[in-house]
Amino acid sequence: MNTAPTPALPQLSAYTTLRLGGPARRFATAVTSEELVEAVRDADAAGEPVLLLGGGSNLVVADAGFDGTLVEVANTGWRRDGDFVDVEAGQNWDAFVAGLVEAGLGGLECLSGIPGSVGATPIQNVGAYGCEVAESIVSVELYDRVTREVRTLKADELGFAYRTSVLKGTDTGVVLSVRFEVREDGLSAPIRYAELARTLGVETGARVPAAEAREAVLGLRRGKGMVLDPADHDTWSAGSFFTNPIVPGAEAEAVIERITAAVGSAVPQYPADGGTKLSAAWLIERAGFAKGYPGPGNRVSLSTKHTLALTNRGGASTEDLLALAGEVRDGVEQRFGVRLHPEPLLINCVI
Q1: pLDDT by residue (tens digit) across 58-90?
Q2: Which of the following is catalytic: 163, 183, 286, 313?
Q3: What whole-number distance in Å separates Cα of residue 55 and Cα of residue 283?
Q4: E strands along 220-290, which residues?
Q5: CA 29, CA 35: separation in Å to the nearest integer?
Q6: Biggest alpha carbon distance in the chain?
Q7: Residue tagged active-site, from 112, 117, 177, 240
Q8: What is the DSSP code (8-state) at residue 245?
Q9: How far apart are CA 320 and CA 298, in angstroms?
Q10: Are strands 300-302 and 275-278 parallel, antiparallel or unpaired?
Q11: How far apart are CA 277 and CA 339, in angstroms?
Q12: Within 10 A of 54 (CB to CB), how many other CB atoms are there?
């Protein structure tokens, strides 16, 4: 394990897909699960705050940086055990999905192109195009910072819900590895997302070769600026910045009637646990924030391809990004009475 003092540490902007964030006081890289446990345990013993860094795709770090130890989760690799695959937390997510597809294994192909590391996926129950990792996760091995023990949580103990789990909003559990169940027939999970089904030319619910589903998903994501490309500022983002709001069942009818009256058209809505899910992107656009809507000094903007991504156009600060996020959130709430909540983890900053 490598440890270096702050003077040798680059800005955290070098480690996040937004390319934003100030310095950390200390930096450590853990290339095995044992080193990861050791790094966190040592920092805890010293009373040092800890920030875990995987792919940096879900972090918004303050311009002031992080006054503690940044631990880079760099344990990689996976091994197959029949219908199951055990994956190290620092493994690049899309490289893992690509490897499954190449091996003729299905089940996770609809989550292709998502940036970041495997260890982050159970924390917020990563999902896209009608699939969530909760459907495939069998268990998670983690280091419990309270008991100082390594233990395994089964899927039914993780409290999965829309973009959340019992691991989100707390730093007591450090993910070391994740076990997934895969499909040996080489076919995709059922295609539930209408746009993806249309692209593939199949009915919703159909299954197709995993490789075909992966290519279709990657094509759709590229069209929305959701596949990382250093030359494309639309991908200098944290992906979807706001989660789709879920309106509690008792309030849904009145809220939808209010929005319908405001825009004069039907409101896209989807059933969800505990209520009705609305489209954050649809609400943002109808609140007056079009694709490419600029923030302070045009240094940040909504993506020119997808209104749900807030992007760094070059030379931006985290303060710029948060100002735009606040303007969008407040604009949607003022027009529709629905409050949007950020999906990325905000480090030493608030909207």
Answers
A1: 999 999 999 999 999 999 999 999 999 999 999
A2: 163
A3: 29
A4: 237-240, 246-248, 269-272, 275-278
A5: 8
A6: 59
A7: 240
A8: P
A9: 9
A10: unpaired
A11: 13
A12: 25
Residue type for 214, please? R
Using alpha carbons, select from 284, 296, 349, 302 the residue that is nearest to residue 21: 349
CA 342 to chain centre: 11
| pLDDT value of residue 247 | 96
Residues 287 and 278 sit within 8 Å (Cβ to Cβ): no
Give 332: exposed, middle or buried? Use CB within 10 Å, 0-12, 13-18, 19+: buried
Predicted local distance difference test score (pLDDT) of residue 1: 60
Residue positions counted in the chain? 351
163 given a catalytic annotation: yes
**CA–CA separation, 56 vs 71, rounded Å?**
12
Is the distance from CB of 341 to CB of 272 less than 8 angstroms? Answer: no
Low-confidence ranges of the chain (pLDDT < 50): 5-6
The tokens describing 184, both together, are 């040996």
Containing H/E element for 326? Answer: helix 318-336
β pairing state of 78-81 and 137-144:
unpaired
Q: What is the pLDDT at residue 6?
A: 40
